[in-house]
Design goal:
TOMM leader peptide-binding protein, ubiquitin-like modifier activating enzyme activity, about 30% helix, Rossmann fold, Ubiquitin-activating_enz, alpha/beta
């Protein structure tokens, strides 16, 4: 598999990015960890953004500007959220996800200073699996579950949910109002009357 993945974030004492990169390399995927937006290779087939609960909104703006496809990975103690895979201009962006989540009463994941490592390992493994499914989508029949969906998994209780994520037409980052187009033209009755 000739693909390149960048894993952003998780540079704390846990060092979450490097184990994920190593797991991907073990599966034949070229992967490297990055700790800042500027370190991301623009040729990446996918960028995994760890700690999306902290840096998802900022990275969303960066990804939309640079056309980067990315997968947000958020984790809080035992619960992780993956996805959706965000393809600028085609799928819902991170702001769409956040705005719809708030409107539907989905509580945000709070960043915590500690984590339950066995739970994090399971969520990280899910992120690796979703990445491999995305990269091999043209050669296998298993589309990533996180394409168009957010996967929430409670690794402690072994429970999960898959929820669809749709583009928000009024999204301030990627919605119709954000696209350049002609302003509405007022009409007048005089313009509608045809003179003989």
């Amino acid at each position: 598999m000739s693909a390149f993945v960048t894993i952003l974030g998780g540079g704390g004492e846990g060092g979450e990015a490097e184990p994920i990169a190593a797991a991907l390399r073990g599966l034949g995927v070229e992967a490297r960890a990055a700790s800042a937006f500027a370190e991301i290779d623009p040729g990446s087939d996918l960028v995994l953004v760890l700690q999306a609960e902290l840096q998802g909104a900022a990275f969303n703006a960066y990804a939309l500007e640079h056309g980067l496809t990315w997968l947000p990975v958020a984790f809080s103690h035992t619960v992780g959220r993956l996805g959706p895979i965000i393809i600028p201009g085609e799928t819902a962006c991170y702001d769409c996800l956040e705005l719809r989540g708030r409107a539907n009463g989905l509580p945000p994941l709070a960043a915590k200073p500690s984590r339950f490592d066995p739970s994090w390992s399971m969520v990280a493994s899910l992120a690796v699996m979703e990445t491999v499914k995305w990269l091999s989508r043209s050669t296998n029949s298993f589309a990533p579950l996180s394409l168009g969906h957010q996967v929430e998994f409670d690794a402690f209780h072994l429970q999960g949910e898959v929820n669809p994520v749709y583009r928000l037409p009024t999204c301030p980052s990627c919605g119709l109002r954000h696209q350049a187009r002609l302003a509405a033209q007022p009409w007048t009755e005089a313009g509608l009357v045809q003179l003989p």
